[in-house]
What does this fold into?
Amino acid sequence: MSEPDGFRAETRAWLEANCPAPMRTPITSAEMVWSSSRTVFLDDDQRVWFERMRDRGWFVPGWPREYGGGGLDARQQRVLEQEMLALGCRQPQYNLGVWMLGPVLLELGTDEQKREHLPKMARGQARWCQGFSEPNAGSDLASLRTAAVRDGDEFVVNGQKIWTSYGDRADWMYALVRTDPAAKKQEGITFLLIDMKTPGITVRPIELISGKSEFSQVFFDDVRVPVRNVVGGVDRGWSVAKKLLDHERAAMSKFTEGGAPSHDALAAAAPYLAAAGPVWRDRLAGALMDQQAFALTTRRMHEMAQARQDVSALGAIMKLVQTEQESAKYELLQQVMGQRGLSWEGDGYTAEEHDVCRLWLYTKVYTIAGGSSEIQLNLIARRVLGLPG
It folds into this structure.
């Protein structure tokens, strides 16, 4: 048996022996395990799957073993992903630190930063949030105004971040702050790691129309952050942020193959489609085909990123396509289900029908968060197609 085949067989056998059967079923948002200093499990199967993957180093299979990784090469990582997908294995944990910040620290972090943060990420012991957007500096991120003024070996941070996903549950934040107010917009920005337990930080959840409260406002009032927490150099944060956003696009694969939050809301429409005409069934088939095409393209982008190829252009397009596809899918479900797709709560409706309504409302967030669709179209026109401004 060749080495590649041997690794595949070994990986398949290990997954079959160690992934509990309930962890091979579609996952809902409520069942996602987010790594943090206070990780919560709904049952023993979640805990067992989390601990076994963690102890094997497969939270970060491609990271060096010295930081808690699995030490796998790119081909072996892809084999692992394929075998998890074939068995229907859920992602054992969700971790923005691992998927987005970790690769940046591996490339640009100091030895001290790597030793402090990477092993905790690899073991699922820290939860990270992203402090980029601000009031009046969302899609135009370079207009951010949160200030960091140096005072000896520390920065004193004052300002506000908004739309911070799970900021109220995070242990740490990676943030962009302005360290040179006299510089041009993209200059004078620094990438800073901030402990969310630092005095002077206030977090307030933002209530959404869907009833969920995933986003927060974060206020900084004379928050002192060590200068050693700067990544990539003072006033050089814009280039660091661009690298991180490239990894953000690659991280989409974790939400579209092998353990994504379930899109089985499509199944909620099945009873209605059975009685619907061929036009509706054709539109549903189109939505499912678009979803599969997106997953395959995401897989290709992930492999390109692992091969150190530039995926920034494809990533910009994928963000737009993903959000618009999600919005269109739930609009379709609303039309197929009629008023039952608008149920919010109460007797006489199924949980799936309630979920369709809430998720339909939540798709409105997708087209704004991380850069609105209109902004994404402008970026694609200028940076991908080379059109004039």
Observations:
- The two ends are 57 Å apart (CA to CA).
- Confidence is low (pLDDT under 50) at residues 256-263.
